[in-house]
From TrEMBL:
One of its GO terms (biological process) is cellular response to sulfur starvation. It comes from the Bacteria. Keywords: Cell membrane, Membrane, Transmembrane, Transmembrane helix, Transport. It comes from Acinetobacter bereziniae LMG 1003 = CIP 70.12. Pfam families: BPD_transp_1. The keyword Repeat does not apply. This is ABC transmembrane type-1 domain-containing protein. CDD domains: TM_PBP2 (cd06261). The chain crosses the membrane at residues 86-106, 118-139, 145-164, 185-202, 208-229, 241-262. Belongs to the binding-protein-dependent transport system permease family. The keyword RNA-binding does not apply.
Length: 271
């Protein structure tokens, strides 16, 4: 009888432990959606009661019909176009940022040559690049990808340089003792030790890539979410503008969550 009671109590342990975890996740999820739901309800009330004119801000309930009409058209083509532009520009810009950051972080002479110039270029607003890129590369994909790559370059570069500078100097002394080659020092010492800062820079680069993508597509594009924003403004369709903004928020959150998951997986050794 005691064995049966012991086994029964043993089987109940996972349930007792699991329920608080589920409740915590549910409570966290409810807190996350509270503010968006309140904003939607407030907007719906203000529009329905006439405080805000529908031509300025459409009722959130009417956005579903507009989204359905766009989805039956070429909405997903716009989403796909913007997404591949962002990821391609992010890959190019962050890869170059890593290469230059490693060179600058490990060599004071290279840092003396490059750091002042990069610091000056970093201060240039995204819109200032557009006329020059249009003159050099035209209105095709090259100018858009280049602008996105510029946006993705600097967060990766800045965070990686800072992370390399903060690597414990004793690790380099250990590398000398074991007579590691320069490439071995980079891949076995520097990059693993600086990986938390590097991954933070990559997440920031991806977020900035979305911002620079909108700047590129607002000026010269026939497809993409930025084009939807511009088209909604020119045709006085605030519903299209708001749907495009919501899509940007959702896509940005999804890609940031993906990068956060990758960061946690790569840094699982810290736990």
């Amino acid at each position: 009888m005691n064995k049966i009671s012991a086994s029964a109590s043993h089987t109940n342990v996972p349930t007792v432990v699991k329920n608080p975890v589920i409740k915590a996740h549910l409570l966290k999820w409810l807190k996350a959606i509270t503010l968006p739901v309140l904003i939607i309800l407030l907007c719906e009330y203000l529009v329905r009661t006439g405080w805000i004119e529908p031509y300025l801000l459409p009722a959130p309930s009417s956005l579903l019909a507009s989204f359905r009409d766009l989805a039956q058209g070429d909405l997903f083509t716009h989403v796909y176009t913007s997404t591949w532009r962002v990821f391609f520009g992010f890959f190019v810009g962050s890869a170059l940022g890593l290469i230059f950051a490693i060179a600058v972080g490990l060599n004071q002479h290279i840092e003396a040559f490059l750091e002042p110039t990069f610091s000056a270029i970093k201060s240039i607003p995204s819109l200032a690049w557009i006329p020059l890129l249009l003159l050099w590369l035209g209105i095709d994909e090259a100018s858009k990808i280049t602008l996105i790559a510029i946006g993705a370059f600097f967060p990766t570069y800045t965070n990686t340089v800072s992370a390399i500078h903060n690597v414990d100097k004793k690790l380099f002394e250990v590398a000398k003792v074991y007579r590691l080659s320069h490439m071995q020092i980079i891949f076995q010492i520097v990059l693993p030790a600086a990986s938390p800062g590097i991954l933070v820079g990559l997440r920031n680069s991806l977020s900035l890539a979305w911002m620079f993508m909108i700047a590129a597509e607002l000026i010269a594009a026939t497809q993409g979410i930025g084009y939807l924003l511009s088209d909604g403004r020119e045709t006085s369709r605030p519903d299209i503008v708001i749907i495009a903004i919501i899509l940007l928020a959702v896509l940005g959150k999804l890609t940031d969550t993906m990068m956060k998951w990758i960061e946690n997986w790569l840094l699982r050794w810290r736990t």
